Amino acid sequence: MNQVLHIAAIVQPRNDTESRAYFRRKVAAGKTHMEALRCLKRRVSDVLYRRLVADAQRQDLDAQSRDLTGDGTGPGGHCGATQESSAADLPARRHFG
Fold first, then answer.
1. Is 76 left (phi over 0), alpha (psi -120 to 50) or beta?
2. On the CB side of 31, how many CA atoms lie within 13 Å of its CA?
3. Is the pLDDT higher at 14 or at 29?
4. Nearest 5°: phi and psi at 48?
5. What pLDDT digit, counting tens, does each position of 16-53 carry?
6. Other CB atoms within 10 Å distance of the CB of residue 26
7. 4 burial class (0-12, 13-18, 19+ CB within 10 angstroms)?
8. From CA 22, how far away is CA 27, in angstroms rounded?
9. Whole-angstrom distance, CA of residue 2 vs CA of residue 41
10. How does DSSP assign 30-94, residue by residue?
11. Kind and range of the H or E element at 18?
């Protein structure tokens, strides 16, 4: 995950984006290149974290609404799905050869 954040922080200032302006402001404020990059990585990780939290909350709300509507889905979102393994009652395989 750290490598992905690092790559994102390296690539973003290459284009004319808010991240480039942020990076330049940090350098203009006296930060070294690496310090400004570290700040940008933190900013990217904060945005990613907020997105993950929002997605998790949205999934929880979706799950609650499905439970209230009673659409009949079981675990895994499929009708009739159970937590029990169906492989327990399978006959043993015969190997020919």
1. left
2. 15
3. 29
4. -60, -45
5. 889 999 999 999 999 999 999 999 999 999 999 999 99
6. 19
7. exposed
8. 9
9. 9
10. T--HHHHHHHHHHHHHHHHHHHHHHHHHHHHHHHHHHHHHT--B-GGG-BT--SS-SGGGPPPPP
11. helix 18-28
Angle at 19 between CA 17 and CA 25, to 5 degrees: 110
Share of the chain above pLDDT 70, in %: 67
Structure tokens given for 52: 């993950």
Residue type (1 letter), 67: D
Tokens of 3: 């490598």
Coil, strand or helix at 2: helix
